[in-house]
Amino acid sequence: MKRILVALLLLSYLGHSQSPGPFEKEVVDIQKKYDTIWDASQPTIVFTGSSSIRFWNDLQERFPDHQVLNTGFGGSQFSDLALYLDDLILAYTPTKVFIYEGDNDISAKKRLRDILNTSEKIIQTLQERKPDMDIVLISPKPSISRWKLRGKYRRLNRKLAQLASKTEGVEFVDVWYPMLEKRKLKQDIFIEDGLHMNSKGYDIWYDVIKNYVE
């Protein structure tokens, strides 16, 4: 009887360990896209993270002097990105990577300590695997739909800024305050869902981030 139970537990473990991640199909689609257009002989900048990056459709056009890859995926969190560091970042041997995570972590009510622990592990892994790569953390943004959580977002942003300041090779770019006007959130920079940005929102991001790209 014990042998049967052990066998069943082993089969259950194997089945679980081989199950696809929640974003596996999307990640595979990203890989297929860049298999045909990525030029490995040219320096590469990667932007990755959740949907605010994924929906930034004109990234390459905004930075025409650089090879820019957008590997943003779905409603991802720091813990999701940790599963795909090879597929979405390291496979393209970038000189610099911009990471936008934390937005969905806060919405999912994750503890600040857990979010920061995961972000630190991601940075540590990337620096161990590619020590010469610059890492830029983009602050979680404010939004209409999540404005009630603004206190938690601001605390996370302060912690991410502190993490960057004490870690060589890591920078923090603040997009939070540029999206405000006199401490109030600009209303005309979002699409109908009140969460994702329109072109005006991405104009703000571009104005802030361009200095870190160059």
From TrEMBL:
Signal peptide range: none
Gene3D superfamilies attached to this UniProt entry: SGNH hydrolase
Residue span, SGNH hydrolase-type esterase domain: 56-204
Coiled coil: none
Transmembrane segments: none
Single annotated GO MF: phosphatidylcholine lysophospholipase activity
PANTHER family, per the entry: SGNH HYDROLASE-TYPE ESTERASE DOMAIN-CONTAINING PROTEIN (PTHR30383:SF5), THIOESTERASE 1/PROTEASE 1/LYSOPHOSPHOLIPASE L1 (PTHR30383)
Protein name: G-D-S-L family lipolytic protein
Source organism of the structure: Flagellimonas hadalis
